[in-house]
Structure to design on (206 residues):
């Protein structure tokens, strides 16, 4: 079975792109390849002129940590660490100094400044997703990949998360690729790409 079939896609720096399609259409596979989580069986994936498809496992991990912020539907927070340590994890792994002013700015904007010493299990779903977004933003990555970030959230929390991504796109000039089933979430983006059976069937700029 072919997950992606002859995908030819170009995204400019600073674009906010939504990728939509039915379950099994290849959306998440595309996102994982762009984030160097999965490797394509053929073709190239060029980011800043570098073919990330040719990186080994260790190089891919470093690339993700330094260039890409990934937000998953199921948060992927480490249950034994506080919210603060979860958010700081990308910097701690890279032995980078934490910019406290920027850290405070992110957690305040996301409304979790009073939850930093809590464990993930003590947070609501919306708060866990905010912590996951803070972790993805802390490194100021050039690219933010969001895989169904509002999939487990109610309407109010979903809107707040999408507003935060829009703000991040505008203020930090981040390139954002959003996988979503949510039509309202997709309409937040500047460009909507529709995938069916591993192929791009529509590419619409708003």
């Amino acid at each position: 079975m072919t997950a992606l079939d002859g995908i030819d896609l170009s995204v400019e720096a600073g674009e906010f792109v939504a990728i939509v399609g039915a379950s099994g259409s290849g959306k998440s596979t595309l996102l994982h390849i762009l984030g160097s989580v999965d490797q394509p069986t053929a073709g190239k994936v060029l980011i800043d002129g570098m073919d990330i498809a040719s990186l080994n496992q260790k190089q891919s991990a470093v690339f993700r940590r330094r260039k890409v912020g990934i937000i998953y539907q199921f948060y992927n927070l480490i249950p034994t660490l506080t919210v603060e340590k979860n958010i700081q994890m990308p910097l701690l792994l890279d032995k980078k100094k934490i910019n406290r002013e920027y850290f405070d700015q992110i957690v305040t904007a996301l409304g979790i400044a009073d939850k930093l010493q809590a464990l993930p299990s003590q947070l609501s779903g919306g708060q866990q997703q905010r912590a996951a977004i803070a972790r993805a933003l802390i490194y100021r990555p050039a690219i933010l990949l969001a895989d169904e970030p509002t999939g487990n959230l109610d309407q109010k929390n979903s809107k707040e998360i999408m507003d935060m991504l829009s703000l991040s796109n505008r203020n930090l000039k981040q390139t954002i690729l959003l996988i979503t089933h949510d039509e309202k979430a997709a309409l937040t983006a500047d460009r909507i790409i529709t995938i069916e059976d591993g192929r791009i069937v529509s590419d619409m700029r708003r």
